[in-house]
């Protein structure tokens, strides 16, 4: 069976912080609160849209409510690709991995609708065999069940899969699933979030060689 590279989305494949930032600022403006600095926003990303909005509301002394969550989700989904772009080097790395025989899946805490809208707009150079979004299964990262369900949906097995992500949730999910984790150091996660990862990729161009090493080790 061909090996499977399971990618996180935000902070790993794409720099989505500009559009998440803009949507949060629009939400705050509607609620009569000031917006955020970019660094504040990147620290909020990684645990799904509900936690993102909860953190944003808490940072501006606002009570969290379902109406705020629904408003943000609809607004962000409609504008998810306004400024979001793949990180430099990602398209070339994906193309090289595909040429080397890798298949691909996405395991993200972002809702599926926003994920699919973003992918359609960006037209990344590969096809994803499965998309495990934050609302695809009963659990989400760091629960390994989210990652395992995504691998299964892609027709893969954990012993032939690698998780690539920039957040501690990616590393924790991979460890729990019995899979190696490759930490994407160019993303939004802090360096200490790489603890437990099998390897660290400083830039996307390093992915083909690192994944080739994993493949060789696993036979």
Automatic annotation (TrEMBL):
Q: Where is the active site?
A: 8
Q: Which reaction does it catalyse?
A: 2-phosphoglycolate + H2O = glycolate + phosphate
Q: Which cofactor does it need?
A: Mg(2+)
Q: Recorded E.C. number(s)?
A: 3.1.3.18
What are the protein's GO molecular function terms? phosphoglycolate phosphatase activity
Q: Known SUPFAM superfamilies for this protein?
A: HAD-like
Q: Which InterPro entries match?
A: HAD-like_hydrolase_sf, HAD-like_sf, HAD-SF_hydro_IA, HAD_sf, PGP-like_dom2, PGPase_prok
Q: Give TM regions.
A: none
EC class of the enzyme, as a word: hydrolase
Q: Could you tell me which pathway this protein works in?
A: Organic acid metabolism; glycolate biosynthesis; glycolate from 2-phosphoglycolate: step 1/1
- Where on this chain does Mg(2+) bind? 8, 10, 166
Q: Which UniProt keywords apply?
A: Carbohydrate metabolism, Hydrolase, Magnesium, Metal-binding
Function comment: Specifically catalyzes the dephosphorylation of 2-phosphoglycolate. Is involved in the dissimilation of the intracellular 2-phosphoglycolate formed during the DNA repair of 3'-phosphoglycolate ends, a major class of DNA lesions induced by oxidative stress.
Family of the protein in this entry: Belongs to the HAD-like hydrolase superfamily. CbbY/CbbZ/Gph/YieH family.
> What HAMAP family does the record tag this protein with?
GPH_hydrolase_bact
Annotated protein name in UniProt:
Phosphoglycolate phosphatase
From the UniProt record, report the name of the gene that encodes this protein. gph
